[in-house]
């Protein structure tokens, strides 16, 4: 094949690729977001910084473990510092099946008690942060209607702006959001920015991924924020930082259990 033929073939392939992207539906895009390779058997150190409207900060350190179980995902998190949250732990079973509610448990060491998070409580704040309990699992695609609003750019990368609307009031009450605008990168299908219209209080939540890198060939979020605003006023902000991220670790399934949640890290 001569050089001109190769260039023509490459150009034609690019045109086909661009055409395919142009014809993709919002639902198909969100399915690719859900299906993308996000690694397995992951261990990471997390820093959660809570910032109030006056700028005061509270910093928490967390150890997080993630494991795939078929199409389902499991996560267990242990709060290490400061003393007021030390040994608090969170366990979630994120089910792929639409008809199955995700399971979540929170261990409170002061009470020596594990609390199961009910569906009616999942719209509540996760450990005083700007993230809801519902944000700690994948979005239920079948529970939402999606449409492409337009294309744009975020930090130099092309994105689709996709509107997501829950189909039922029950879903709105469980997630805490009556509508979301999602910014999905076209090259890796990661939601790198989002705006959430909350169900109560006329507040907006602005989610932003400011750190993103490839680790073990997996696109990995290393820094993100969630900011709660009312009008132009910032009410609260949460920053999450991820470090020492390792994939393909030796994590046993029994580690993701209520027993381990209460036992803690040794």
Automatic annotation (TrEMBL):
The answer to whether the entry has keyword Lipoprotein is yes
Asked if Lipoprotein is a keyword of the record, the answer is: yes
Q: Which residues cross the membrane?
A: none
Q: Could you say which residues form the signal peptide?
A: 1-22
Q: Which key words are in the record?
A: Lipoprotein, Signal
- InterPro entries, A to Z: TP_0789-like (IPR033399)
Query: What residue stretches are annotated with the Uncharacterized protein TP-0789 domain?
Result: 72-263
How is this protein named in the record? Outer membrane lipoprotein-sorting protein
